[in-house]
Amino acid sequence: MDPYSVNMDIKPGPLLKHIDNPENLRRLSREQLHQVCEELRQYIIDVVSVHGGHFGASLGVVELTVALHYVFNTPYDQLVWDVGHQAYGHKILTGRRDNFPSNRKYGGLSGFPKRSESPYDTFGVGHSSTSISAALGMAMAAKYKGERDRQVVAVIGDGAMTAGMAFEALNHAGVADSNVLIILNDNCMSIDPNVGALKEYLTDISTSPAYNRVRDDVWKLLGKLPVGKHFTREMAAKLEQSVKGLVSKSSNLFESLKLRYFGPIDGHNITKLVDVLQDMRSIPGPKLLHILTVKGKGYALAEKDQTKWHAPGLFDKVTGEIHKKHFPTPQPPKYQDVFGHTLIELAEANPAIMGITPAMPSGSSLKFMMEKMPNRAFDVGICEQHAATLSAGLATQGLRVFCNIYSSFMQRAYDQVVHDIAIQKLPVVLCLDRAGLVGEDGPTHHGAYDIAYFRCIPNMIISAPMNEQELRNLMYTAQLDSTTQPFVIRYPRGEGVMPEWKTPFQAIEIGKGRKLRDGQELAILSIGHPGNFAAAAIRDLKAEGLQPGHYDLRFVKPLDEELLHEVFRKYKKIVTVEDGTVKGGFGSAILEFMAENGYKADVRILGIPDRIVEHGKPAELQHECAYDAEAIKEAVRSMMSIEVVSTKGWEKK
Ligand SMILES: Cc1ncc(C[n+]2csc(CCOP(=O)(O)OP(=O)(O)O)c2C)c(N)n1
Ligand SMILES: CC(=O)[C@@H](O)[C@H](O)COP(=O)(O)O
Ligand SMILES: [Mg+2]
């Protein structure tokens, strides 16, 4: 049976149903594009309401998406979508309409553009602010290969534009002499409201009479140019002079970086967009078109509460009611909320505590502290590197910073952690939310690598709570004066296990694990939340007469060596469980301990394997990666049936 057969009820509109690729779109008249936009928007609403995914961002670029595929010769001309959470319309127009209901599902379409999925997806995305660099690379390659007619377009949001990477790319694009068009999709929103001086600058450009005059003059000039013909160099130069002359009056940031700036224009006016893009195609060199759009456009509730409708989950498209699971008993809270509420409790008692998030106040729940203590908790924009070094700077002044960054986004700030935090041994608390397999966002967002990439850095303390109480106690421990090193606390997306989570604080001795259960013959060593999978497996195995011991190490670094000596003296069969990479992770740390101490045992390491893990529900992926309760039971059963320690084991000296 077709696993997505439920989608048969969702029908694309009469024009959209015949658009199997952009060629079909390009055969339509300009007048028909209004209807295409309407149908595309409706199809996104129909599918996302039932199947989930990102929502507001794609609604906001419906007109832009249609205009881009109408004007440009995709896939020969190349479109690079920044982040890619707004590319649903692009997917639907480029041959994936009927498969779109499988979006973000196990085995289905990726929620982001992905090169292996379609020739129209020119660059794999998910993390923000890569589009200008990637597009510039493509444009430079086209120039080098003599493909003068090839156009490259980067579409980047105002939120993504705040990142250092975007500025690095702009700095290069201005002098690279390549045909790259950057479209700045300005909706004044990141996931939460966009922040920073750039946001204010963009608002100024959009509202200032001087800029509006410039814009009108430019379009008048463009309007005089022959439609359907390419500009001559002379005409382009004249236009450039004119624009520069007018814009320089207000010293345009992008013009200063040697990019021709056009706009701002209404990004929901499809006719205007098509006209402007057609003109832009003929203008050589690097240029930037600033468009103004509304996130969630066309779905009133999404326009009104844009953060909530960034990725709302399933909802009733008619009433707008977001479906919530209803449980008869109190459910455990999300780890992120335990973090958010606990930080306020700690900050109320410790005036040195500050909170930092790079653009994820809602996702990390730092918003609770930002609302309550606005002078002590800050959203710094999509700027993970800055967030890390800013935290280091604050720490030099004796402040206790909780810098909350999703595990996969922390990859951006690796050098800052090494150079600015670890080498200087600054006691910044790095809270890594979304550690482990995050689910539907897939490989770009899985928090797979942090144990491995942080474990090799001297001075780091690396911990992972098995439940809410442990998270609170680790946070409490991290801010004590006696803690003098960088302190990582990693925890997963979603709920923990303790409905009654608000437990009294207790300091945890750094590097101390805990024995949860004595056993026979085999011990399970776990780190973090997957310890609950181990506990569930152990409960089931009891019925089979198997009694593994269970140790929650709490810290990957420093390891509880005393506890490990106890373990290796008693058990000769070991299963390690983690939601990080098998290579270089927690299990590897245990193997190192064994090697260093000459222990001999059979060891099985369960965790994320050495390959790219795709998207799906977390439980599906944990099962595929074989570290869920079922896999742990399997591992225990198979190891218990082995009599003799394998020759692969370590020989005790
Ligand atoms: C490096 C990185 N940090 C954070 C995120 C999380 N994130 C995804 S979309 C988004 C907001 C992007 O805002 P913008 O570029 O303006 O796009 P919009 O959603 O407004 O269309 C954020 C913060 C990310 N994808 N990558
Ligand atoms: C596109 C993107 O990067 C974010 O929207 C991300 O999907 C948020 O993830 P959470 O839902 O885990 O906050
Ligand atoms: Mg935005």
Automatic annotation (TrEMBL):
Query: What Gene Ontology cellular component terms go with this record?
Result: cytosol
Q: Which residues form the Transketolase-like pyrimidine-binding domain?
A: 333-499
Keyword hit for Electron transport: no
UniProt keywords (A-Z) are: Isoprene biosynthesis, Magnesium, Metal-binding, Thiamine biosynthesis, Thiamine pyrophosphate, Transferase
> Which biological process annotations from GO are given for this protein?
isopentenyl diphosphate biosynthetic process, methylerythritol 4-phosphate pathway; terpenoid biosynthetic process; thiamine biosynthetic process
Superkingdom of source: Bacteria
E.C. number, please?
2.2.1.7
Tell me the Gene3D superfamilies matching this sequence.
Answer: 3.40.50.920, 3.40.50.970
| Catalytic reactions of this protein | D-glyceraldehyde 3-phosphate + pyruvate + H(+) = 1-deoxy-D-xylulose 5-phosphate + CO2
Enumerate the GO terms in the molecular function aspect. 1-deoxy-D-xylulose-5-phosphate synthase activity; magnesium ion binding; thiamine pyrophosphate binding
This protein's pathway: Metabolic intermediate biosynthesis; 1-deoxy-D-xylulose 5-phosphate biosynthesis; 1-deoxy-D-xylulose 5-phosphate from D-glyceraldehyde 3-phosphate and pyruvate: step 1/1
InterPro entries xrefs: Dxylulose-5-P_synthase (IPR005477), THDP-binding (IPR029061), Transketo_C/PFOR_II (IPR009014), Transketolase-like_Pyr-bd (IPR005475), Transketolase_BS (IPR020826), Transketolase_C (IPR033248), Transketolase_CS (IPR049557)
Subunit organization: Homodimer.
Q: What does the UniProt function comment say about this protein?
A: Catalyzes the acyloin condensation reaction between C atoms 2 and 3 of pyruvate and glyceraldehyde 3-phosphate to yield 1-deoxy-D-xylulose-5-phosphate (DXP).
Q: Give the matching HAMAP family.
A: DXP_synth
Recorded protein name is: 1-deoxy-D-xylulose-5-phosphate synthase
